[in-house]
Structure formats: C-alpha cells, structure tokens
Amino acid sequence: MHWHSDHDRPIFFVELRDRYICSWCEMHDGRLILIPAQQSKRRAQHLRYPAEATIIGRVTGVAMGLLEPSENDARA
Length: 76
Description:
This protein is mainly β. 7% of the residues lie in helices and 38% in strands.
C-alpha cells in the first residue's frame, strides 16, 4: 500500500515479549518488520510473527510522550 506521507501511514501498538512498541509495520514472508522513523537513525527490526510479537492494535491518537528515553535508547 502507498501513502501520501508518513502522516497517512498507520502506526501499530505491538507487544514484544519483553516490552511494547509503537511503530510502522510491514509483513513479509511470516516476518513482522518494525519500521522506525527516519529521524531516529534506528534500523528496522525483523521479528517472527506471531512467535516474537503480537499486534495489539492501531494507534489512533497520541496526546504526549509517556516516557523519557533512557541512556540505553540514546546509544542504540
């Protein structure tokens, strides 16, 4: 599917086995690919689906950040 901009692309709330994440997602050959925003400088994560991740639902709105990034997140 093609979107006009990143603002049109759906964001999903995903449960990993040790944490939760909100991300753009794609499915390819039984793998869930979590796609980070370009500005984050992070790499896409490839996970076996549904063994390593569960899609909880689609994010429909966000009012504010919930957590400050930890030192580990800043180095990743």
